Amino acid sequence: MQVLLETKGLTKQFGGIIANKNINLTVNKGTTTGLIGPNGSGKTTLINQVSGELPATSGRTFFKGEDITGYSANKIARSGIGRTFQRIRLFHRLTVVENVLVARRHFFSANVLDIVLNTRRNRREEREQLEHAMTLLQRLGIESEAGKLPTALPYGKRRALEIARALALEPELLLLDEPAAGMAKEEYADIVRIMERLKEQGITMLLVEHTMEFIRRVVDWVYVLNFGEVISQGVFGDVEQDENVIKAYLGGDETL
Amino acid sequence: MRKRLKLVMILVFLGAVLYYPLMEENEYRLFVMNRGLIHAILASGLVFLTGFAGQISLGQAGFYAIGAYTSAILSTSYGVPIPLSIIVGVIFSVVAGLVVSVPSFNLKAFFLSLVTIAFGLIVHRLIVNLQPLTGGTNGFFGIPPMRWAGSMFTSNMHYYLFLGILAATVVSMYHIKRSYLGRAMFAINDDETAAESCGISARKAKVFAFAFSGALAGLAGALYAHFAGFLTPEPFVFFESSRFVGMAVVGGLRHLWGGVIGGIGLTLLPETLRLPYAGWENYYLLLASTITILFVVFLPRGLGDLASKALDRLWKVEGATKTLKDATVVDDSEAGADDASLT
Predict the structure, then answer these.
(1) What is the pTM of this model?
(2) What is the 8-class DSSP label of residue B140?
(3) Which of A175, A235, B38, B180 sits at 20 to 30 Å (Cα–Cα) from B130?
(4) A226 belongs to a structural domain
(5) How many angstroms away from the CA of A248 is the closest CA of chain B?
(6) Structural domain that includes position B154
(7) What is the pLDDT of residues B23-52, one digit of tens each?
(8) Residue A71 sits in which domain range?
(9) Interface of A with B in 97-156 (CB under 8 A)
(10) CATH no. for residue B229?
């Protein structure tokens, strides 16, 4: 199995507070890896460190064997890591399809002069990328919303749009921060279907999630964090029996 | 039928704009209109910087001054041909824009505006103090006027030149707005973190926005230098910078035509209020400023937004279907004639 992402001793300290400590994590190509743990255990911090939004205090991150520690967030995105956010972040002044097009930026080769003069090359690229973006919207079942502003979309579709935008980068790794959080029942079913389709397409994912049912259904390997440290890892069936994990979650001996 | 109405209105508008200097008998009014066109070029740059990319500049007079003095000094003291001196003026302003963009990497709104104010003040002090080069407070005189076939530009020729440059500016901005560059500007304005996650470098986007708005301000300044024939430090004080921002806001910060409407409108407004009543001369500027404030308070989206909404209603195009059409038929830009609502 080929290693796609690897962190070595990743640590993040905010002043005196240690958000996560010495995290060694491996994500294999084509698999879906879950990050679980109680609130404040450092899951989102880890996602933000990998995506470059937060610089690591120490430790290193390797992606496709390349050391990407300290790269800017936009460079990491371009190198093939797409992400969504815990609280959905969309561009509210751009239409749905334009939101997706933003992430197609580096598939354009037209220069400023092409744009200002609106040359044939610029028009052709705009057309091609628009088609590509529409295909993505279709894959996520929101192509009929293309011309609307994101604020006009229900919550579930906003999440789908955020995933479409991340996929527009043609990433090899997708980071999803609580993709199923706050979903109504039908929306939840939709997002599970989306995840299963992405898995079929062989997209590697690293996701944070609190819904255990969701983890059970889509995840191949789980890391459990508590107080910024990995306390357990394995397939979900084993991890949910782990006493340390049960204690961390429930502070007692009940099962998950 | 609607389409024909639209076409007729656009033709009437174009005709009026082109015919205006021919029927204007008052040379002073034409002079003010020409200054309005120059301000419109500059204010369009501010619309781009602030409305599109979300960055603030209260030092735009600094870029304006750099363009003006560079072109004036090169053409007057070194005999550089005017088109070339204007281009060099623009390049210098772009370089200044690149420098000023650096603080914007980390500073936001209030703090960034302080930095840009400081930039404007520095440029102003340099003009005052570098007397051998700029003439200081005594002014810089004898700037060669633009010429066509050996004779000096008339007011009408200035008008058409400035109008052409302004039109090119608006068309350029229109195309940028609909390109990946424009989307990147809007994206960093809405949410920098999300934009970065899409592979957009917020820094590069800001550098581009400052360079572009600096270029337009420098171009406006260089045109002004040869149009006016002399320069003093006065039009380049902080007050002017804030007036430029006022133009962009009144016209509509997020509107493609905002700079045009605000630039021309706020240049003409005080002159229009200058009615020949006894003692009134002391108050017309006060009234002009009051009107500006009222616009900002009660019409924060600007006149451009109001106008385009009114036009939309006239065409009876429903907002939703229009945006859908806009979004899915991006390639429709060849049909440039239906650009009355370039929002």
Answers:
(1) 0.89
(2) B
(3) B38
(4) yes
(5) 32
(6) 29-300
(7) 988 899 999 999 999 999 999 999 999 999
(8) 3-93+156-250
(9) 97-98, 101-106, 108, 110, 112, 115-118, 122-123, 126-127, 129-130, 134, 146-149
(10) 1.10.3470
